[in-house]
Write a structure and sequence with these properties.
The complex is a heterodimer. In chain A, 49% of the residues lie in helices and 17% in strands. Chain A is of the alpha+beta class. In chain A, the strands form three sheets. Chain A has a six-stranded mixed barrel with strand order 3-4-11-8-10-9. In chain A, strands 1, 2, 12, 13 and 14 form a five-stranded antiparallel sheet that branches. Chain B is of the alpha+beta class. Chain B is 49% helix and 15% strand. Chain B contains 14 helices and twelve strands. In chain B, the strands form two sheets. Chain B has a six-stranded mixed β-barrel with strand order 2-3-8-5-7-6. In chain B, strands 9-10 form a two-stranded antiparallel ribbon. In chain B, a hairpin with a 2-residue loop joins strand 6 and strand 7. Chain B is elongated. Classes of the chains: A alpha+beta, B alpha+beta.
């Protein structure tokens, strides 16, 4: 197959060919960046919570009266523990993908004027680590005498635990055990670290900056209950728990938005990201469709325009395959030109997005991926017009138009 | 002449229905996607209170300590007011109408025994709130400054809440239980739901789709320690009435630019006096007075995701237009023979250009109609999204007209180059070749 006759023919249609090339270039730039945005969303949505989401049921309550909280918490804990399929019950202030409850700044030195570190303080009753299924990384769990009543919103407790990864960023190269964390006007000593507990509202920049304090259920710690259920029992337990709250505590209201399994809470938490990813997929599909329409339209025109020449070539001995390959090669050349330009554009667009929307740099492998997609699209789009061209009989050459 | 060109265009388009369909579809998709996003943005940034917005201002003071970390992620604490500052501004009476306020959520108890209580959002405000924003009362009235002073247990219900609790609105004097306290109903307002909820705390991001269901005196809420929603920040020990705990919003109504200038100066003077007292550590020039729409812009109500989607949609429109240019070019140049005959028979280049311009505009009009349909489908899908702004996304007449105009303008622009090229065809050469 010779390329020079194709180039010569394209030179006669350089404006149209250039425009289709430009369209492919723009499509390539948008495609690469949109694919990248989608994959970033998917990464965000796949963040690990560190707990067994399907088996953990969360019950969140509104309108808990502080004066009756201790009594209420005790009644609810024993009531919830009695539901068939519940293995253990714990009181907490928050759960992954639930309502944020204890975001606070803290410092590592008592004399530091700034609260430069910010994390989510989980406050849990004695059963929380075992109910969530947390694993100890270093040190030890809280001892029973370390649990304190809540004042302001943190418990009066001498000890604190942290996510092990997070502890490493706070004290790089040092053991966190025995270190002190100063929050509000209280000081807490680190007694241990646990492996991986996600914050309630993770975002790409902040996922595991969590701390755990030991609180006595009661005033300020009676609104969120976590239930560990036997496998496959979560839905049943959820229904039974709702009914139980209405019976045991008629004065409080179940917060329906935050009463679900943790996997259910995760679904609602990422609903907006899923919608955004869906919208991006829609844009990509529409973009590919329009690009394909352009290729089909132009190729069809060229085929019609060149019917006579095609007939002449066929009469002079060219096979159908030759004609088919001619149009395929022509399309390949135009698309390649578009892709080459598109890669530069994709990179430029990414730079703009990086500066305006704090997106990370486009990984290079998106460029060949986008290119491959467009080459395939181009070949598929040109196939129908090219087959029509190949079907032109040699006898056309002898007819006058 | 125009009718003749229109006829020619119709014939030409009908001759190649597949290609015409492709062009119309491309324009429709591009315009539909762009208009969907433009409409969402238009709805989110529109004026929530057109009759008063020109007179409403949000004062800004900066009571933060000099070394307070600047943290954008959680909002700027100085966007809100401390209790002493808000009260000082109100007591100075430099504006005819003014009010301090905070949002709150409480449990409302149905009047009938045995029904479950439900959680509702409302506003704690000083007495001037209703006049300031021009709320209309269906029954009764608001409360007075004396009621504020006395921490009166008074509540004003919205029409919707009165109907929900009592099934009627003539309920002035009845008692309602909110949280753990009982309040006497002082009035019922007509439903009032400015979108975005411009007067609320910035962390609410416009609170699209929400409205206040009840109003009660700010001092009463403070007295009962009712829960406050929105961003609250403190940098020293001390409760809600201390000078280092920001949680309130203050709005004032000023009639003209001169009053606004005077008020701005008053804010700077106030900051300077507080600095002298040792309370404020930052320069008095940080004080500012935002007109309402500037304040909304300052709050950055439009999320980055949405801007990104708008840019994607516009990029997509450009791709569609380039596509149309290429297709029209091929189509027009293919008719070089026809053009040459017309030119030889006396048509001027201008006539040819006009003829093809009309054809482009026709494609654009059809594409615009399709675009309106696609944008409606797009907006429907936006309304299914979980974001709070989603369900206010609807197209009004002006956006509808803009859609069609944009489609025609876009396709005219796209048709320009092909039409120009077609009008440059040398008739002699073409005719000889045939």
């Amino acid at each position: 197959m010779q390329i020079r006759p194709i180039l010569a023919a394209l030179r006669r249609h350089r404006v149209a060919a250039f425009l289709i090339g430009m369209e492919i270039a723009l499509a390539c730039a948008i495609l690469c960046n949109a694919l990248f945005l989608i994959s970033a969303r998917i990464d965000t949505m796949q963040v690990s919570s560190g707990v067994d989401e399907d088996r953990l049921v969360v019950v969140s309550l509104d309108g808990v009266d502080d004066n009756a909280a201790a009594d209420l918490a005790a009644r609810l804990r024993s009531g919830l523990a009695g539901i068939a399929g519940v293995q253990s019950v714990a009181v907490t202030n928050a759960v992954p993908f639930g309502q944020q409850a204890g975001e606070a700044g803290f410092r590592l030195r008592a004399d530091d004027p700034h609260y430069d570190n910010q994390g989510h303080f989980y406050v849990g009753g004695p059963a929380l680590p075992s109910t969530l299924g947390l694993q100890l990384a270093e040190g030890r769990w809280f001892t029973p005498d370390e649990f304190g009543p809540i004042s302001e919103f943190l418990p009066r407790s001498p000890s604190i635990m942290l996510d092990s990864e997070y502890a490493r960023t706070l004290w790089p190269g040092e053991s966190p055990l025995g270190k002190t964390v100063y929050a509000i006007d209280k000081a807490f000593r680190v007694v241990g670290t646990y492996r991986s507990l996600l914050r309630p509202n993770p975002n790409p920049g902040h996922t595991h900056n969590t701390l755990l304090l030991a609180g006595i259920p009661g005033k300020g710690l009676a609104s969120v209950y976590v239930l560990r259920t036997a496998p496959g029992k979560a839905d049943q337990v959820l229904q039974a728990a709702r009914a139980l709250v209405a019976r045991v505590a008629p004065a409080v209201v179940v917060n329906q938005d935050y009463t679900d399994t943790i996997s259910g809470l995760r679904r609602s938490y990422f609903a907006a990201d899923r919608a955004m990813a869906g919208m991006l997929v829609g844009v990509i599909a529409a973009l590919l469709l329009v690009t394909a329409l352009g290729i089909v339209g132009l190729a069809s025109f060229w085929v019609q325009q060149r019917r006579k020449q095609i007939g002449v070539r066929r009469a002079l001995g060219a096979t159908r395959g030759d004609i088919l390959r001619y149009f395929q090669t022509e399309n390949f050349l135009i698309v390649s030109f578009g892709i080459a330009l598109g890669m530069v554009l994709a990179f430029g667009l990414n730079l703009v997005l990086m500066s305006r929307y704090e997106l990370p740099r486009l990984p290079l492998f998106y460029l060949p991926a986008g290119a491959l997609l467009l080459w395939v699209l181009g070949q598929l789009a040109v196939l129908a017009p090219a087959l029509r061209a190949a079907a032109v009989p040699p006898v056309v050459a002898t007819r006058s138009v | 002449m125009f009718a003749y060109y229109l006829d020619l265009a119709l014939r030409s388009l009908r001759r190649s229905p597949v290609l015409t369909g492709m062009m119309v579809l491309a324009i429709g998709l591009g315009i539909g996607a762009s208009m969907t996003m433009l409409t969402v943005l238009h709805v989110m940034t529109r004026d929530p209170l057109p009759e008063l917005s020109a007179q409403l201002y949000y004062p800004h003071l900066d009571p933060l300590p000099a070394n307070y970390p600047a943290r954008s992620e959680w909002g700027d604490p100085s966007d809100n007011f401390t209790w002493p500052d808000a009260m000082a501004l109100l007591e100075a009476h430099r504006a005819d109408q003014q009010a301090a306020m905070a949002g709150g959520r409480v449990l409302a108890w149905p009047v009938q025994a045995g029904r479950m209580p439900f959680r509702i959002g409302g506003r704690y405000a000083t007495a001037g709130f209703f006049d300031l924003f021009g709320l209309r009362f269906e029954q009764g009235r608001g409360w007075t400054a004396a009621d504020d002073e006395a921490r009166a247990r008074l509540v004003v219900l919205s029409h919707a809440l009165a109907m929900q609790l009592f099934g009627r609105t003539d309920v002035v004097g009845r008692t309602v239980r909110l949280g753990d306290a009982r309040f006497q109903v002082g009035g019922v307002t007509a439903d009032w739901a400015p979108q975005p909820q411009f007067y609320a705390d910035a962390s609410g991001r416009g609170n699209y789709g929400e409205s206040d269901r009840f109003f009660l005196p700010l001092a009463t809420a403070l007295d009962l320690d009712l829960s406050v929603s929105g961003n609250q920040a403190s940098w020293k020990e001390g409760g809600k009435t201390s000078g280092n705990y920001t949680w309130l919003q203050v709005w004032v109504r000023l009639k003209n630019a001169a009053q606004a200038r005077a008020y701005r100066q008053f804010l700077i003077d106030y900051s300077a006096s507080q600095q002298k007292l040792g309370r404020f550590e930052r320069p008095p020039a940080n004080a500012a007075l935002y007109p309402m729409m500037d304040w909304l812009a300052h709050q950055k109500l439009v999320p980055n995701d949405l801007r990104l989607q708008l840019w994607l949609a516009l990029g997509f429109l450009v791709v569609c237009l380039v596509n149309i240019v290429a297709l029209l070019l091929a189509k027009f140049l293919r008719r070089s023979g026809e053009v040459s005959v017309r030119r030889a028979l006396g048509a001027r280049r201008r006539d040819i250009f006009l003829q093809f311009g009309v054809e482009s505009a026709l494609v654009g009009s059809l594409g615009g109609l399709l675009g309106v349909a696609i944008a409606q489908a797009g907006l429907w899908s936006v309304r299914q999204r979980p974001d709070s702004y989603a369900h206010v996304a609807r197209m009004d007449l002006s956006m509808l007209a803009l859609t069609v105009l944009l489609a025609i303008a876009g396709s005219l622009l796209a048709g320009m180059l092909p039409a120009w090229r077609a009008s440059r065809v040398a008739p002699a050469l073409q005719l000889k070749a045939q």
